[in-house]
Amino acid sequence: MRLEEKIKFLKDNIEPLSDQIYGDGYRASAYLTDGTYIPCVRFRNPELRTKQAIKRFDEERKGKSIFKSGSGNGYGEIVELFVTGGNSLNKFDIDRIELSPYAFPKAVLSQIRGETSMGWTGFCAKMNDGKIFGFGTSFLFDFFQMPKGYVANDIAEIINHSYISKDGTIKEHKIGWTSQREDYNLNVIHRERPFFDCYIKGL
User: Fold this and answer.
1) Measured between alpha carbons, how far is 140 from 190 in angstroms, rounded to an integer?
2) Is 77 exposed, middle or buried (0-12, 13-18, 19+ CB in 10 A)?
3) Strand runs (DSSP E) across 33-99, as ranges?
4) pLDDT band at 114 (very low <50, low <70, confident <90, very high)
5) Is 96's pLDDT higher than 80?
6) What is the residue-averaged pLDDT of the chain?
7) What residues contact residue 198 under an 8 Å CB cut-off, 6+ apart?
8) Is 108 helix (H, G, I), strand (E, B) or coil?
9) Which of 78, 100, 167, 196 is spaced 20 to 30 A from 25 at the CA atom?
10) Four-CA torsion 65, 85, 29, 159, nearest 10 degrees
């Protein structure tokens, strides 16, 4: 795919997730030029992230940062964060783009209602065939591991603040509960997946 074709594919086939700071994110899968398959890639226009970096650099240089650094090298730490932080792919290393089987549709994500407890959101997903599976994340919602034989588009309904117990039944989380219940089965929870960012002008 040429660059124009990549941009067209993303805009025509994927509903972006909006972010007030970094802009729209298009979640997809990609094949690199050497054939490597990367199942979880978030594509964005670099403009807003670049502006955010310039703003943070300027704040640190002027001593106006709201974040205090114990090292006394806040400026260096901010530069390091933007330059080396996160997983990233070069747009020219990507051969072609496909839909990701691990990206929940935006309509499904909109059904997830807030944190279950501090730093944890637990829920179940009912599939089109009626089967139900447990999911959970501490922070990220871009991509999720899926049960074997299912893709994200198979999800029919989200059951908020729930989990699959050790006896296989669905139970409700106690909202705000900071410790896991005795029947909480971590082995059947599908967690968030790591992903790469790729920045393309024109998105």
Assistant:
1) 13
2) middle
3) 37-44, 88-89, 94-98
4) confident
5) yes
6) 90
7) 30, 41, 42, 43, 44, 88, 89, 90, 91, 94
8) helix
9) 78
10) -60
Contact 69, 60 (CB under 8 A): no
pTM higher than 0.85, yes or no? Answer: yes
Compute the distance between CA of residue 123 and CA of residue 161 in angstroms, rounded to an integer: 5
Phi, psi (rounded to 5 degrees) for 154:
-80, -10
Which tokens is 111 given?
Answer: 């059904």
Four-residue CA torsion sign, 46, 84, 67, 18: positive
136 vs 144: CA distance, rounded Å: 9
**pLDDT higher than threshold 90 for residue 191:** yes
Helix or strand holding residue 136 (H, E): strand 132-137
Dmax (CA) of the chain: 58
DSSP state of 115: -
- Mean pLDDT, range 179-197, rounded to an integer: 86
Specify burial of residue 28 (Cβ count, 10 A radius: 0-12, 13-18, 19+): buried
